[in-house]
Write a structure and sequence with these properties.
There is one protein chain. The protein is mainly β. The C terminus is likely disordered. The chain is about 0% helix and about 45% strand. The protein folds into two domains: about 220 residues, Neuraminidase (6 Propeller); about 45 residues, no CATH class.
């Protein structure tokens, strides 16, 4: 199963991410301390998580679900999956909403390459800022560079760019209309970045580093991982062979079995939803 694009909720309690658990790419949420993922989208097209709305009530995604050709648009989806709303922009692939939710800094089209360095063809990516009230666009200054991964932090938009060589973090000030380099990079490209209160975390050489805006210094980030417990994730499974020790729930809606699985004879607890004629594990 593939996973990616994690985004921490504004209150830090949940993580939205892109997952492929059931044969389709969709948006999921999971408790920040780990647990069982909950699926938000069910469209047959790919729904890719970008972030959250500032109030934490919805997740921002990019999807081609309503596009007339091969491009993506931007949507928000409620935490129960009950409401999907399209942003008033013709297309979009990356980007966070501003802290007040009135604007979005976004990349309008997909990147041509993720590993090809110093590409300068016709599909280099800009970062634009859109006012969601009237869809008016402000373009961050560039000279055919690959600008991507925009971040709102305070009154500035930070983004990654290869405009001066290796990919590094830059900042755009909408008031002065100027772009400045956040810090110098003499090493390999930065691959991704995300913001928190007063700092930006970025990925480089397979590790995570924290850039403190106040001091201008960077430091490594220690990593600990909590699993998504795939064995308890609800799924369909063929249980025609190897079932034993059946038990019927008092209401007769479900039955429970033990099933030996694999050479190690691992025991799995199977709940059979009798009304569906197939097993949910």
């Amino acid at each position: 199963m593939e996973k990616g694009g994690p985004a921490l909720s504004p209150d830090g309690s949940q993580i939205a991410f892109t997952g492929e658990y059931d044969g389709n790419v969709d948006a999921f949420v999971i408790p920040a301390e780990g647990g069982v993922p909950r699926r938000l989208t069910w469209h047959p097209g790919a729904d890719v998580v970008l972030g959250w709305t500032p109030d934490g009530k919805a997740v921002l995604i990019t999807s081609g679900r309503t596009a007339f050709s091969r491009f993506n648009e931007l949507f928000t989806v409620g935490l129960e999956g009950e409401s999907v709303e399209k942003l008033p922009l013709p297309q979009g692939n990356e980007g966070p909403l501003s802290p007040d939710g009135r604007r979005i800094a976004y990349v309008p089209h997909a990147r041509a390459f993720y590993a090809w360095k110093r590409y300068r063809g016709g599909r280099t990516t800009p970062v634009w800022i859109a006012d969601l009230a009237d869809s008016r666009i402000e373009k961050i200054p560039r000279d055919n560079s690959n600008d991507f991964n925009p971040i709102w932090l305070g009154d500035k938009v930070y983004f990654l760019s290869d405009r001066n060589g290796p990919v590094i973090l830059f900042a755009y000030d909408p008031k002065s209309k100027t772009v400045s380099r956040a810090f110098e990079n003499r090493g390999l490209d930065l691959k991704s970045a995300s913001a928190g209160p007063g700092a930006i975390v970025y990925e480089q050489i397979g590790g995570l580093f924290l850039y403190d805006l106040k001091s201008g210094k960077t430091r490594p980030v220690p990593i600990s991982v909590s699993g998504d417990i795939p064995e308890v994730h609800e799924r369909y499974e063929n249980v025609g062979n190897g079932l034993a020790n059946a038990g019927l729930l008092p209401n007769g809606v479900r039955a429970v079995f033990f099933k030996a699985k694999g050479a190690a004879q691992t025991i799995h607890l199977i709940y059979l939803q009798l009304s569906r004629k197939s097993a949910l594990v």
